[in-house]
Each structure stands twice: as C-alpha cells, then as structure tokens.
Amino acid sequence: MINFRMLKLSDPLLWFSAAALTLIGFLAIFSTTYHLQLKLELDPLYFVKRQFFSLLLACAGLAICTYVDYKHLKRIAFGLYGLTLVLLFVILFTGASAQGAQRWLQLGSFSFQPSELSKLTLIIALAAFLNERRRIKGLWDTGYLLLLVGLPFLLIFKQPDLGTALVFIGILLGMLAATEASPRLLIFLITPLISVLLRPVLVFWLIYILALVVILFLSRASFRDWLLVLGLNIGVGIAVPLFWGMLKAYQRQRIVAFLDPAADPYGAGYHSLQSMIAVGSGGFFGKGFLRGSQTQLQFIPEQHSDFIFSALGEEFGFLGSLAVLGLFALLVWRALVIAAESRDFLGRALASGIAAMFAFHVFANMGMAIGLLPVVGIPLPFLSFGGTSLIIGLAGVGILQSISLRRHKIIF
Predict the structure, then answer these.
(1) What is the pLDDT of residue 228?
(2) What is the pLDDT of residue 412?
(3) SS3 (DSSP) at 106
(4) What is the pLDDT, as a whole number, of residue 411?
(5) pTM for this entry
(6) For residues 364-387, b (16+ Cβ closer than 10 Å) or e, as one string?
(7) Phi, psi for residue 298 in degrees, rounded to 5
(8) Quick check: is 179 in a domain?
(9) Can you give the pLDDT at residue 111?
(10) CA distances from 386 to 48, 112, 393 (A)
(11) Nearest to 75, CA basis, from 12, 158, 115, 131
C-alpha cells in the first residue's frame, strides 16, 4: 500500500528542476513549430499535443518509479537488459527509418526509440553488476563489464546512432568514478579514449604513446599493465581508420564540418552554422518569445528536436540560456547528493548513473548547438520534442526520488 506521507522525504529541488525544464520545453516546442504548422495549413498545436500526451505517460512512469522501491530493480535488471537487446536487434530489420537512421519501432500510430530505453536499462544492469562485484578485479570482471556496455553500443551504432552510443561511455565512466572503482580500471578505459581523439593527427598520437611508455617506466608498472595499456592504445590507433570507414557518409561529413563548418556552409556545416548564428543573435536578453528570426523563419530544420537549445538562445538570450543551464546543474547536483546520501551501494550506483546520463546529454547537446562539438543526434532532456526521451527522463527522476524517499528510516 502506498504511503503518501513518504513524499515529505522526497527532494523538492529535484521536483522543481524537472518540472521547470519540462515547462520550458513546451514553450520552446511551441515556438519552433507553431508558425511552420500554420504555414503548411496544419494543426499549429500538433507537436505540443503529442508532447503533452507523452507527458501523461511520462508522469505515470514517474509515479511508478517513485513509489516502487528501487531495490526491486536489482531483481529484474538483466531481464530488462535482455529485452532491450532483443528490441535493438529487431529494430535493425523492422524499424522505421528517418533521416538516414533506423531507430523507431512502430506500434500502430505510436512509435518509440529502444535506444532511449537502453540508456536506463544499461544503468540498472550496470548498477546490479557493480552491486554484486563492488570492486572490479581481474580480466574476467573487466571483460564482463565491457561486454555489458559493448553489446548495446554496437547494436545502436549499427542503426546508425552514434550520439546515443557515445552516451553509454559517459554513463560507464561516471558510474565507475562515483562508485570508487579501481584507478587502474579507469586508466584502462580512459587512455584509449584519448587515443581516439589524438589518432587523426598521427604525430600527436605517437607523442602520446611515447608519453605513456615514459609514465609506465617511471611508475614501475607490471608487465601486465604494460601489455594492457600499450596494447589497448595501439589497438585503438590501428582501429580508428577502420572505424572511420565504417561511418556513414553523413556522419563523416558532420565530423569534417565540425572541424571547419565554413567548408560546406550549405551542406554538412549548415545546421552548425545556423545554430551558432541563432544563439549569437540572441545577445544578452534575447529577441523575445516567438520573435527569433532564425527560429520563426525555419532556418534550422527540425529545430524542435536536437537543436532546440538554439531557439532558447535566440529568443531568451544569454540570461535565458544561463537559467536553463542552471536548472540542469541543479538537477545533476541533486542527483549526486542523493547518490552520496544513499543508504546502500545499489542506490549510489543508480543515482550516479542517472546523473552521468543527464550531464552527458546536456554537455553534448549544448556543445553541438554552439559549435563546440560535432553534430550528433542527442536530445536535450525534458526540452527536445520526443516522447521516448521525455518518458525515460522522468522515469530517471522517479528512480532518483525513490532513492531519496528511502535515504532515512521512516518513523511514525
């Protein structure tokens, strides 16, 4: 039986940040779609209505995740993980395609993205695994951990959806850092990522490999550490050119456009350039709601989804953007506080994974909108149009509140 008196132990700042961001999201979706729908002689509230229906489902999921004890997730963790893998595999053959990606499963008039669901199920599966192991020791545990992340990563990369696949790496590193994983394990995971970033410039990568050799020598590392660290980094260096060949043409164009957007201003660099123009034109105070020229004249296609932050920057300016960033910072901070105050390891792992998921999304999406990062398909939580993203985001908030409700023993 649900005891509503438990709500007094929930985190009010977490409620506030999630609710405020959701409300701002509705305003931004209305602004980016209203005039276009009128121009096409369609329902001007079509996207708002769809998002509101998704919000009703999301609130139901939020309530369930809040009141169900998060410890029960441990029992169904690998069942959920297995179901997600099946959905990700099925979508490769029967999924609906849009803009070069096959990401949606169609159920009558409704569709959803299993890749969004996979973020939350991966967090639950990793939390259950780390709760059992506590300390990752040996190659077997490390291999099992990488397999948990690698299977959905490869299936989502195949869709192709590089942005969502990269979220998994952020979740893994965030959870390992928050649960005080072995520094050696973090080194094994982080150094290959640096190799990925440096490998395009061969000279820089070779200097980096040489620096690793010096560090291993000075630290008197064991033969196994030499073999693993150098083997992983050299292996990554060999694999990067092969990985580049596996990317779709539009994904390679996006990376090239990130390095030099002006090289193709009407093609791969178009979104990035127009987004930067929109954010910059907003100035300090913004042009005002429904008054952004880039937004209202539809210079940025599909702005209501991945590029919704550019609309906020144009119409609400630096102050509005700072307020939105502050709300996200509040959300992530409360998630980390809940993780730190959790009564058990499972709660700490779950909360830190959800915090890492939100933080990575915000960093990648906003960085993409202002030209600091390549264009990848990552929505802005609670703000971007998309039912699956909203449902998963509020379900994550519900799990955080479930942990918060049970941080202290209840005394009646």
Answers:
(1) 79
(2) 38
(3) strand
(4) 42
(5) 0.85
(6) bbbebbbbebbbbbbbbbbbbbbb
(7) 60, 45
(8) yes
(9) 73
(10) 10, 9, 11
(11) 131
In sequence order, what DSSP letters do the residues of 169-184 get, joined into one string? HHHHHHHHHHTT--HH
Q: Domain limits at 227?
A: 17-405
Q: What is the DSSP letter of 18?
A: H
**Nearest to 17, CA basis, from 408, 393, 410:** 393
Written as six digits, the tokens of 287 are: 């042009």
46 occurs within a structural domain: yes
Identity of the residue numbered 190: I
What type of residue sits at position 107? Answer: L
Q: How far is CA 160 from CA 217, 219, 235, 306, in A?
A: 41, 41, 23, 16
* pLDDT for position 265: 55
Number of domains in the chain: 1
d(CA 151, CA 268): 30
| Cis peptide bond prior to 160, omega within 30° of 0 | yes
Task: Enumerate residues 6+ apart whose C-beta is below 8 A from 134.
Answer: 345
DSSP classification of residue 110? E
Q: Is 207 inside a domain boundary?
A: yes
Instruction: Please list, residue by residue across 150-167, b when 16 or more beta carbons sit within 10 angstroms of its beta carbon and e when fewer do.
Output: ebbbebbbebbbbbbbbb
DSSP 381: T
d(CA 283, CA 298): 19
pLDDT of residue 137: 64
| Amino acid letter for position 194 | I
Residue whose structure tokens are 């780390």: 130
Spans of the chain below 50 pLDDT: 1, 410-412
110-112/101-107 β-pairing: antiparallel
Residue 5 lies inside a defined structural domain of this protein:
no
pLDDT at 163: 75
Could you tell me what percentage of the chain is helix, strand and coil, using 3-state DSSP and rounding each to the nearest 5? 75, 5, 25
CA distance 228 to 220: 14
The side-by-side arrangement of strands in the sheet containing 110-112 is 96-98, 101-107, 110-112
* Alpha carbon distance 343, 153 (integer Å): 31
